[in-house]
Design brief:
alpha+beta, 2 domains, 1 helix, 17% helix, 34% strand
Length: 131
C-alpha cells in the first residue's frame, strides 16, 4: 500500500485573482492558476479550451500546427531537416480568426527557433532569432 497522499487539485478559477483583494490572496490565486496551466500543458500538450489541427502533406511531418479558441489562434510552422528532425520552428499569433498572423516574439523580437542535432539525434543547440 502506498503512503502517498493524493493531492487536492484546485481547477483553474477564471474569476480570480481579483486585483482589489489583499495582495497575499491575489498572489496565491495567480500562483494556483499558473500551476494549474503548467500541469495541464505537461499532461495534454495544449491549453484547456483550445483545439488543435495539423496541416501538411505528410502526417508524420506536419508543416504547421494551429491552436484555436474563438477568434484567437496560435500557429507554429516547422521546417524538417535531416533524419526527420525539425530544423526551424516559427511562432505566430492571430486575433482575427486566422486572417492575419503576427510573429509571437520575445522581448528581443525573436520568434524563430533553430535546432541543431548530433548524429545520435540529440538536440545539441536551440537558438532564437528572427529568421
Amino acid at each position: 500500500m502506498s503512503n502517498l497522499v493524493t493531492p487536492v487539485y484546485d481547477p483553474i478559477d477564471h474569476n480570480h485573482p481579483v486585483i482589489s483583494n489583499p495582495k497575499i490572496n491575489t498572489e496565491t490565486w495567480a500562483r494556483n492558476n499558473i500551476v494549474n496551466l503548467r500541469d495541464f500543458l505537461i499532461l495534454t500538450g495544449y491549453m484547456p479550451g483550445w483545439s488543435c489541427s495539423a496541416s501538411g502533406t505528410d502526417s508524420t511531418q506536419p508543416t504547421s500546427y494551429i491552436f484555436t479558441k474563438g477568434v484567437e489562434a496560435l500557429k507554429y510552422t516547422i521546417t524538417w531537416g535531416a533524419n526527420n528532425l525539425p530544423s526551424k520552428v516559427w511562432y505566430y499569433y492571430s486575433t482575427d480568426n486566422k486572417t492575419t498572423w503576427q510573429p509571437l516574439t520575445d522581448a528581443k523580437g525573436n520568434y524563430v527557433a533553430t535546432y541543431t542535432w548530433d548524429t545520435s539525434e540529440y538536440c545539441t543547440a536551440k537558438t532564437w532569432g528572427t529568421s
